[in-house]
Design a protein that fits this description.
This protein is mainly beta. The chain is built from four helices and eight strands, in the order βααβββαββαββ. It is globular.
Length: about 210
C-alpha cells in the first residue's frame, strides 16, 4: 500500500462538484503512487505572513514553530518545527516540516466577513495544497499505557470553504453545516505507524 487517501468527488446539495486537481485525478487511478512521493511546485506564487494564517485558529490551538521561510523554487511557505500542544496534559503533535501552497488570505477574509449567508453561499479556495511531513504524537495515553503515532506525510489538496464559514446562518445541525461548507479535493497519507510501550499492545504499520 503506497498511501491511504480520501478523494471527495460528490456533489453538494446545490449541485456544486467537489474540487478536482491533477493530484486527485492521478490518485484515483488503480495502484497510483502516493502523491507525497512526488515533488509539487506552484508557479508564480507569492509569500504570505504565516502568522496571519495561524491567527485564524483559536488562540489555544495555535502552534509554535522554529522557522518560516518562502521557498521560491517550490512556490511554498515552508514552516519547520511545528508543535501543536495542550499545556494542560502534555499532549502534543509535532510536524518537522510543513509546506503551504497558494494560501489566499483575501479569500479567508471574504469567508470571515460574510454575514447573513445561506447554505448555497459561494465557495472560496483557501489554499492549493498543504503538505505536512514527519508527524509524531507526544504524551498520548491509552487505557493503560502511552501510545505513539507517527505519520511520514499528510497532504490536503485544494481546500474550499463557503462564505460565512462552517457556521453559515447558524441554522440546522452543526455537523451538517460543516460538511456543507467544506470542499476538498483529497487527503492523502503515507507511512503510518502506531506503537505502544509494551509488547502486549498491538502495533501496526502502513507504508
Amino acid at each position: 500500500v503506497a498511501s491511504l487517501g480520501v478523494i471527495f468527488c460528490g456533489k453538494k446539495g446545490d449541485g456544486v462538484d467537489a474540487p478536482k486537481s491533477e493530484t486527485s485525478q492521478q490518485a484515483a487511478k488503480t495502484n497510483a503512487d502516493s502523491p507525497l512521493n512526488t515533488s509539487f511546485k506552484l508557479k508564480d506564487a507569492e509569500p504570505v505572513e504565516i502568522d496571519q494564517f495561524f491567527a485564524l485558529l483559536p488562540e489555544d490551538a495555535r502552534p509554535t514553530y522554529e522557522t518560516a521561510t518562502f521557498d521560491k523554487a517550490l512556490g511554498a511557505d515552508v514552516v519547520t518545527g511545528l508543535r501543536f500542544s495542550d499545556a494542560d496534559d502534555g499532549e502534543a503533535l509535532t510536524v518537522a516540516r510543513a509546506e503551504f501552497f497558494g494560501l489566499d488570505m483575501d479569500a479567508i477574509d471574504r469567508v470571515k466577513a460574510a454575514t447573513d449567508v445561506d447554505p448555497d453561499a459561494p465557495f472560496e479556495t483557501i489554499f492549493t495544497k498543504v503538505r505536512l511531513f514527519d508527524l509524531a504524537t507526544e504524551g498520548f495515553e491509552g487505557d493503560v499505557e502511552t501510545v505513539g503515532l507517527t505519520i511520514g506525510g499528510v497532504e490536503f489538496d485544494q481546500l474550499q470553504i463557503r462564505q460565512g464559514g462552517t457556521e453559515g446562518n447558524g441554522e440546522g445541525d452543526e455537523g451538517a453545516r460543516a460538511l456543507n461548507a467544506i470542499n476538498i479535493a483529497g487527503i492523502y497519507y503515507k507511512d503510518i505507524a502506531m506503537a505502544a510501550e509494551s509488547d502486549e499492545t498491538p502495533s501496526f504499520v502502513v507504508n
